[in-house]
């Protein structure tokens, strides 16, 4: 008999999974998708192997959220000096989409990122305040989301999909305010994400500041 499609359902979400039609497997003690049911409705709990291979060097991208002319600050507390974060790599390929070109030696900027390797997650925790996994309201799934560094409110998420995107610099001046911190990653890694490359990020690739990730602060002896 074929192995059922198992789900990674956190305990607090079990009623939700059950409501959507998931069944409990008493031997394996896991929820699973009954045969014949559309697995996409359970997408947020599918235990997938990250499908995007990224080429080093990898970068933590830091951009001021303030992006004229329409941007107005955090809608909850008004804080107007947030930094937004994402990752970038020096090439990438989504192996779940074999028809897409394999990019090499070209800056790719990530969005909807999740499940980074431990070393990257640790660097993000250290450097990128407000950037942590949450439920994306725009995507209806879990991924890393930027939050207000003052009150914790999730920030407007579609910045990577519209013209006001802080990472999609449209002028050299804006691009030169964006910082790329090189991550201590020497090998290709896999993460869950989509990415953009090419003309939309060409100014960023050319004019952003390239920096090394600051060392963790040492304790005074
Ligand atoms: Zn706020």
Can you characterise this structure?
With 221 residues, the chain is mainly β. It has two domains: 5-45, no CATH class; 52-212, no CATH class. 12% of the residues lie in helices and 32% in strands. Strands 4, 5, 6, 7, 10, 11 and 12 form a seven-stranded mixed beta sheet that branches. The chain is globular, with a radius of gyration of 19 Å. Bound molecules: zinc ion. Zinc ion is lined by residues 74, 76-77, 79, 148, 150-151, 153. Zinc ion binds at residues 74, 76-77, 79, 148, 150-151, 153.
Q: Could you write a compact summary of the structure shown?
A:
The chain is 12% helix and 32% strand.
- The percent of residues in helical segments reads 10-25%
**What percentage of the residues does DSSP assign to strands (E)?**
25-35%
Quaternary arrangement of the chains shown? single chain
Radius of gyration over all CA atoms, rounded = 19 Å
Q: Termini distance?
A: 62 Å
Helix-strand pattern, N to C? EHEEEEEEHEEHEEHE
Stretches where pLDDT falls below 50 for ≥5 residues?
none
Overall 3D shape: globular
Structural class: mainly beta
């Amino acid at each position: 008999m074929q192995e059922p499609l198992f789900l990674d359902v956190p305990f607090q979400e079990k009623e939700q999974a059950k409501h959507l039609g998931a069944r409990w497997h008493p031997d394996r003690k896991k929820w699973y998708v009954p045969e014949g049911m559309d697995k996409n409705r359970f997408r947020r709990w599918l235990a997938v192997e990250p499908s995007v291979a990224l080429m080093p060097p990898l970068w933590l991208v830091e951009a001021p959220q303030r992006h004229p002319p329409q941007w107005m600050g955090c809608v909850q507390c008004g804080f107007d000096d947030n930094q937004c974060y994402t990752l970038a790599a020096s090439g990438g390929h989504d192996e779940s989409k074999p028809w897409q070109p394999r990019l090499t030696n070209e800056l790719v900027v990530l969005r909807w990122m999740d499940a980074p390797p431990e070393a990257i997650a640790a660097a993000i925790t250290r450097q990128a305040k407000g950037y942590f996994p949450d439920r994306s309201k725009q995507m209806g799934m879990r991924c890393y989301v930027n939050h207000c560094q003052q009150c914790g409110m999730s920030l407007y998420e579609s910045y990577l999909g519209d013209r006001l995107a802080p990472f999609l610099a449209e002028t050299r001046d804006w691009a030169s305010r964006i910082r790329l911190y090189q991550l201590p990653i020497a090998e290709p890694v896999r993460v869950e994400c989509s990415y953009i490359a090419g003309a939309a990020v060409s100014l960023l690739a050319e004019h952003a500041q390239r920096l090394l990730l600051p060392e963790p602060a040492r304790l005074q002896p």
